[in-house]
Amino acid sequence: MAYVFLPRLLLVWGMTGATILVAVVLPLLIARSMRRGHTFVSEEAVTQTRGEVIRKQIRFEELVEIRARSNGRMGGVPSESVTLIAADAHGKRCGMHVSRVFVTSLQPLLARLEREVARRPKLLANPHERELFQAALAEAD
Q1: What gap in Å lies between CA 63 and CA 109, rounded to an integer?
Q2: Per residue in 121-135, pLDDT tens?
Q3: Could you give the count of Cα atoms lying within 13 Å of 49 in the half-sphere of its Cβ?
Q4: Distance CA 110, CA 20 (A)
Q5: Cβ-contact 85, 67 below 8 angstroms
C-alpha cells in the first residue's frame, strides 16, 4: 500500500523543486547577472563589462551606424535604447545595444554620440533615424 503513494510523493516533490527553481533561483540568477554588467562611456569608446571582464568595446571612430529607439515603458522603467554598429579592421560588422533598462541614463552616451554625428552625419542612415536620434536627445535632457 505504501508503494502506491511513493510515485505521487516523488511527483509532488519534483514539481515543488521545479517551481522553486523557476520562481526563486532563476530570477535571482538573472538579477545577479544584470547587476554585474556595466556600460562605460569614454571619449574614445563605449565599453560593456561583466564583472571585471570586458565583454564588448566599440571605438567611436569604428562606428558605421547609430540607431536610437524608444519603446515606451517596460514595467516602471523607460525602455529607450541605442544600438551602435561598428566595423572592425576586416570589415566585419558588430553591434552593441545600450538600453535604459540596464543603465541609469543614456545622456552621457547620447552627448558623445551627438558630437560624433555632427562630425559624421552619415552615421544616421536616413531622415527617420535622425528624427529618432533627436527625440532621444530631447528625452535624455
Answers
A1: 13
A2: 999 989 999 999 998
A3: 10
A4: 41
A5: yes
